[in-house]
Write a structure and sequence with these properties.
Blueprint lengths: L2 H7 L42 H14 L3 E5 L2 H9 L7 E5 L4 H10 L6 E5 L14 E7 L11 H10 L3 E5 L4 H4 L9 E5 L13 E5 L2 H14 L5 H12 L1 H21 L3 E5 L9 H7 L6 E6 L5 H7 L4 E2 L9 E4 L10 H7 L5 E5 L5 H15 L2
Parallel strand pairs: 2-3, 2-4, 4-5, 5-6, 10-11
Antiparallel strand pairs: 1-7, 6-7, 8-9, 9-12, 11-12
Bound molecules: pyridoxal-5'-phosphate (PLP).
Length: 382
């Protein structure tokens, strides 16, 4: 079955809700489930451990990822946290410095207090594993990265990581299983902020984990239960509904983004354009090798002849907001919005200029998107 068909039909068996048999899976808003006797529980016992609506979503997600298991989490950060809970005191995590800020903060501000350390590198593609800190037990990859859309070669890094017995975790939020399947490239665990493309409508905070290994699954499921971080049934319902249109939304976003890239490239209002679909980029071949598309994110550096404040406040179709992956187009100024907690040194090292704008393209009509940028540029010209 093709991805598009599975997105709509995969999940729990049809007819599970009795003779009503609706096309959308029912929302079970219940915290607990009656038992017939004190010695026997049914398939579901208590919603923190399991819930049919969440279970339906997990089956849908596993079918799309072609994974054995999926776990729906209260947020993308809950997915990251439970995955990194596999580490023990004294262990370290290897990651690249343009990783999502929340993941970095989890490592620096929380896991460090639990005696879990880290080794940070600029670029995992370039990293020589001979320099690996012997305490490192896991590598955490996010590709493409945010905000510069740098691509890490998952298969190459996973192969080297496996030679050192590292657990390979990939944050696949920006690509989703529609465009990239890291488990098939050597990852052990894939995490998602399903708040983004899976949910797709900016109305839910949601996370996902996919995994093939039985032992890893058992541990992650247990940690989710004891940490109390599963997705609520209502949010599972919304995520399940969002996923049904994910392929067509992502196709539309990708088409719009490719056209906007051409507009940006030909405009003299931008000093730099960062897009995984730019054939001139050195990592373009990695992207085309490991993913079947380029996604809906693009970043630009606004030229100094344009006033950043006037430009961003003049937008009428684009909203100025953090996040991405929804049907609506959003812009965020990385230095002051998504990466405001980073030091100047970190901004310089990653390449976050004060006028760098990360743009998440939605599914609006392309003429309205380009028209909005043009009218805002006109107002912002100094
Ligand atoms: C790449 C990436 N991973 C994880 C997260 C965290 O997800 P959530 O906000 O759903 O907790 C985000 C959020 O922006 C993200 O962009």
């Amino acid at each position: 079955m093709h991805f598009q068909t599975k997105a709509i039909h995969a999940g729990r068996e049809r007819g599970i809700d009795g003779p009503l048999n609706g096309p959308s899976y029912p929302l079970y808003l219940t915290s607990t489930f009656h038992q017939d006797s004190h010695t026997e529980a049914g398939e579901f016992l208590y919603t923190r451990s399991g819930n049919p609506t969440r279970d339906n979503l997990e089956k849908q997600v596993a079918a799309l990822e072609e994974s054995k298991y999926a776990l729906a989490m209260a947020s993308g950060m809950a997915a990251v946290t439970v995955s990194l809970s596999l580490l023990e005191p004294g262990d370290k995590v290897l990651f690249h410095e343009d990783i999502y800020g929340g993941t970095w903060s989890l490592l620096e501000d929380f896991l460090a207090t639990q005696k879990i350390g880290f080794q940070i590198v600029r670029d995992l593609n370039e990293f020589d594993f001979a320099d690996l800190d012997p305490a490192v037990k896991a590598v955490f990859i996010e590709t493409p990265s945010n905000p510069l859309n740098q691509v890490t070669d998952i298969e190459a890094v996973a192969t080297k990581a496996k030679e050192h017995n590292l657990l390979v975790i990939v944050d696949n939020t920006f690509m989703t299983s529609y465009l990239q399947k890291p488990l098939q490239l050597g990852a052990d665990i894939v995490v998602y902020s399903a708040t983004k493309y899976y949910g797709g409508h900016s109305d839910v905070i949601s996370g996902l984990i996919t995994v093939n290994d039985d032992d890893l699954y058992d541990k992650l499921k247990l940690y989710r239960k004891v940490q109390g971080s599963p997705l609520s049934p209502f949010d599972a319902f919304l995520t399940n509904r969002g996923i049904k249109t994910m392929p067509i939304r992502m196709d539309a976003q990708e088409k719009n983004t490719a056209q906007i890239f051409e507009y940006f490239r030909d405009s003299d209002a931008f000093d730099a354009v960062y897009y995984t679909g730019d054939p001139a980029r050195p990592d373009y071949t990695i992207q085309t090798k490991q993913a079947s598309g380029f996604g809906g994110l693009i970043s630009v550096v606004l030229n100094e002849n344009y006033d950043l404040n006037v430009f961003t406040s003049s937008l009428r179709v684009f909203a100025l907001a953090v996040s991405l992956g929804g049907v609506e187009s959003l812009m965020s100024v990385s230095a002051t919005m998504t990466h405001e907690t980073y030091t100047q040194e970190q901004h310089d090292s990653i390449g976050i200029k004060p006028n760098l704008i990360r743009i998440a393209i939605g599914i609006e009509h392309i003429d309205d998107l380009i028209g909005d940028i043009e009218q805002a540029l006109e107002k912002a010209k100094k």
